[in-house]
Design a protein that fits this description.
The protein is of the alpha+beta class. It has two domains: about 180 residues, no CATH class; about 210 residues, no CATH class. The chain has eleven helices and 16 strands. The protein has a seven-stranded antiparallel beta sheet with strand order 2-6-7-1-5-4-3. Helix 7 packs across helix 10. The mean pLDDT is about 90.
Length: about 400
């Protein structure tokens, strides 16, 4: 299996300048390749330029511009061209699917933040010696950069990426590992019900509160964005205001990731089998369709878009998709089994008698079966039904 590691880099002032220049030159290569594709399609009878033809020109480009393109690793430049090729592949896939195409755009220096090295030892080298307390990564054109390695890297390093986030620099490694050692068997199974009042409820009656990191930071974000709107474009003060807004967003993102990692780790350590709802988060957070007014052409009736926008904001703040992805990765590494089930009627079906009715859930939190009188927390009932459906599906799935 492939596992990714992200570590904070601590470059010197000169190395920081070199890293910025490396990003700028790769951004220039990306934009130049995009311009070539656009010009070929528009002015050369709709000729399509592909990755193979552009990568074959790299040798001449490096010889023509040795001060910029020639000073960096040769293997990292085809990786940048591959990024553009993937962007076009996604564009054509969306066109064929009838979705909004989103033609690939030129990148400014502020929006190009990653350079990938496809192979350890080719233009880059991960230097992690067990007896050396200082870890470094060697990058061609930059030098040996110190890395804050907060945990050991297991397996053979395959690829290395350099990433910029604000004023910080990170190194991202992908390592190929053998089958990981499974955690001890606990004999416990659990079903979880995702929500907004509580982040999740489990079938044992436990709850994980929703931290609402975005909601807690909303006041500071609003003040920072208002200060940004008052700044003159292109001014030094505006650049500082932009960085202040970005810093707050990065903090919320890190808090959300930290909560997802800790919650997922607790579930994986305590349970052998985890069942969850197969949530279609993209469909759940869609904006409501407009309602034309038949009596007044050109006018629209209220469609609850304001309330739905608040709900969508809460769904995004909860970060269900990030949590489920992290939980699946941790479960795979620990030898645990994860099963997704259909979430329909799970919170309206009585776990005692099986009666399903909308009246069983009179409020958001209360469940009271109109057939047998069973009452419990609605989220706990949903988690119980999710667990039972997951166990049934596990038995029906061939090994």
């Amino acid at each position: 299996m492939i596992r990714a590691y992200e570590f904070l880099m601590r470059p010197t002032v000169r190395q920081t300048i070199a890293l910025r220049e490396m990003l700028a030159d790769h951004c220039s290569l990306y934009n130049g390749a995009l311009q070539e594709r656009r010009d070929a399609y528009r002015h050369a009878s709709k000729t399509t330029v592909r990755y193979g033809g552009q990568s074959a020109q790299l040798k001449d480009i490096r010889a023509f511009d040795p001060e910029c393109q020639g000073r960096w690793s040769f293997s990292s430049q085809p990786a940048t061209l591959r990024r553009l090729d993937k962007a076009f592949a996604s564009f054509f896939r969306r066109v064929q699917a009838g979705e909004k195409p989103g033609y690939p755009r030129f990148r400014s220096g502020k929006r190009f933040d990653t350079v990938e090295f496809p192979k350890d030892g080719d233009g880059c080298r991960w230097d992690s010696t067990p007896h050396d307390p200082v870890t470094r990564v060697r990058l061609q054109g930059v030098g040996h950069v110190r890395v804050h390695q907060h945990r050991p890297v297991a397996g053979k390093v395959k690829t290395i990426s350099v990433k910029r986030e604000g004023h910080r620099w990170y190194i991202v490694l992908t390592a190929e590992q053998t089958a990981p050692e499974a955690l001890p068997v606990t004999g416990s199974v659990v079903g979880i019900d995702m929500g907004l009042a509580n982040f999740l409820a489990d079938s044992g009656g436990g709850f994980v509160p929703n931290p609402r990191h975005g909601h807690k930071a909303a006041a500071k974000l609003e003040a920072a964005q208002q200060a940004l709107s008052r700044c003159k474009r292109g001014s030094k003060r505006r650049r500082k205001a932009v960085e202040a807004v970005a810093r707050l967003h990065r903090k919320v993102r890190r808090q959300r990731l930290d909560h997802a990692h800790k919650t997922a780790l607790d579930l994986v350590r305590e349970h052998d089998f985890i069942a969850h709802e197969d949530l279609k988060i993209r469909n759940m957070s869609k904006a409501p369709a407009p309602k034309p007014d038949p009596e007044q052409p050109g006018s629209f009736l209220p469609n609850g878009a304001g309330a739905k926008a608040g709900l969508n904001r809460s769904i995004a703040d909860a970060g269900w998709g990030v949590f489920l992805a992290i939980r699946a990765a941790k479960a795979e590494g620990a030898g645990r089994q994860v099963m997704a089930v259909d979430p329909r009627t799970t919170s309206r079906r009585c776990p005692e008698c099986g009666h399903t009715a909308e009246e069983n859930r009179p409020t958001q939190e209360k469940f009271h079966c109109v057939a047998c009188g069973h009452h419990a927390h609605a989220d706990t009932v949903g988690a119980l039904n999710v667990l039972r459906a997951g166990l049934v599906r596990r038995e029906a799935t061939p090994a």
